[in-house]
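Let's do one together. I've listed all components of the complex below, 719 residues spread over two lines.
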Amino acid sequence: MANNATPQIMKQGRLTPWLYLAPAIIVMGFFIIYPMFTTIWLSFQNRDGTQPASATCVEGRPCWGMFENYRYALTAELNTSTIQTTWQTFWTSSYGNTIKWIAFMVSGTVGIGLFFAVLAERVKYEALAKAIIFMPMAISFVGAGVIWGFVYDYGAGDKQIGLLNAIITGLGFKPMAFMSTPGANTIALIVVGIWIWTGFCMTVLAAALKSVPDEILEAARVDGANEWRVFWSVMVPIIMPTITVVVTTMVINVLKLFDIVYVMTGGNYGTEVIANRMYTEMYINFNTGRGTAVAVILVVLIIPFVYLNIRRFLEQEAMR
Amino acid sequence: MSQSKITRSSINRFFNRMPLHLAVIGLMLIWLIPTIGLLVTSLRPVQSINTNGWWMVMAAPPGMESYNQYCGECHGPDGSKIETADLSDPAVIEQYPRSIQLLGMLRQEIDGQPHMGDLELPSAQEAADIAAQLKKMAGGEVTPRLTLNNYIDALVGYRGTNNYVDDCEAGAQAAGMNCNISDLLNPRGMGRAFINSLIVTIPATILPILFAAFAGYAFAWLDFKGRYWLFAILVGLQVIPLQMTLVPISRLYAQLGLNGTFWGVWLFHTGFGMPYSIYLMRNFLGTLPRDLFESAYLDGASHWTAFYKLAIPLAMPAIAALAIFQFLWVWNDLLVALVFLGGKHPVMTYQISNMVSSLGAGWHLLTAAAFLSMLLPMIVFFAFQRYFVRGMLAGAVKG
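Okay, and this is what the predicted structure of the assembly comes out as:
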């Protein structure tokens, strides 16, 4: 262990470190560690945690015994009568939608962020340009929901006060009720997410780009590589570790994302995602067992990233 | 000769760089326009918001155009050209308050001739616009282009058919309104929510930083068993989602009577802010030069002295970054406020999300409320952008 032998520069009582750590460990134990285990336990109980989940099984219906809440969490949104309907309903379920969110939002934020970071470096108003892209990071998801709800506004008559529908009708097409059209609405919500998070990706990637040595870029240009080539064959490979970090961070963020869906559609019209579904089961349907089961599924999906995070930390420590 | 060469090459350069500028400025506009739309809308009177889009804010009112098209030629630009049908006379205009009456009158013949001559009748929408325009010309109520009424209504939580200022002047305010400063405390208003947001945010920013400073110091400069692995666990905890802990904590709070109290939210945010804050503090404190601490010790300083006289002052940049991060996180949070505070002490995000579901199309209130909630984060963001970016680059994820 690279760092084990570090300090020992001052005499210290054996208890001193624990005195410094105590407040942090107590609040973390109380608010993170303890509830994590309770959540797992509750996910095997019934709706108010008084009986095991298997007690909620109904005769003649499918039942997974103690995993009954998980059966509900995983299959309730699906129409499993045929393979085809299962497939179709999967893509409008919270899981299918979460996959769409991850696919579009992560590629959107990282793609636009990288694109903009490269471009902004070459203009004189770089600072202003970056500040504008970054600004939504300071706004709440709720505020962003209102901002974009207004952009997406749909007037039933011939008057459109929403910007997007005004453009669409101006071009001679029919206006669209973005929030209540399944399929389109999830994409519309993802656009809001991209608007918020691109600034984060851009800032981190821009910092990485700045650290690429100029000599390497110059050498590539002298060797006759055009800008496109320099970007793909020199810059991208050098900043690949940062891109990986940004992508994993974004995947975690998307998995946890709740506010946008809650504020803009409430999970209706086929826009449900895992994080919002947990809220719905728990605080609208008041079913602790099912709500916690959804939460556990969410954590299971995140665990690979916990592992990645720790591994990256260990690698960084080893390099110190 | 050389002069022209330079100009030509700089012109070439300018055109070569056009696509670059177009792409950058185009993206900047796409990012900016939705927010500008919100700001402009929040400043427009209700009637205008629902009449046309916010980008028309500086255009002439639609009634003006239609009036000139259908009526202006005969009645004159101010409506007083025909003496027997003086459109600037309120008594005349009163008979045609809406498009139906107006169209009905236009269909009638005058002296055996069609009222409009060869002109086509205006559409229902145009007639409505004209009716509104006629009212203005006759000296009826004139709506200003921009107004602060939406903000006042949002602050006091006024949801009458008219706006708060007018209703108060007329003495026709809704029940529960006193028409003085005390209305700012109305639980449905954004004024009260603003105060609640501050009450939630300030301790929920200070507490985690305080605890994290202690723990970060221990991880960076103290030696203890399991130091390394404890920190690795901490790194892993950073990505545990809030959702995983909400249910047991709200059950526990119900037993302790902490649901709906500020203490409940403060403590929860402190617990959840901890992994990231400690991570940041430890990494920053760990980069301070070792000699400093060694010489402090040789001078007889204890750990406590080294901590608060040396480590804390030097860690100010990290503390600033952390403070901004935590402030924005707590201020913008909806989920925790929703679960633990709810309507008992509504914060701004809660109030807005409530408005969205209960008011539907009340854009004048929604936009003003949303902008009010963005005001403080925007100020903090633009004032301390440097620290914010630094904190973000130093850390991983949180929440």
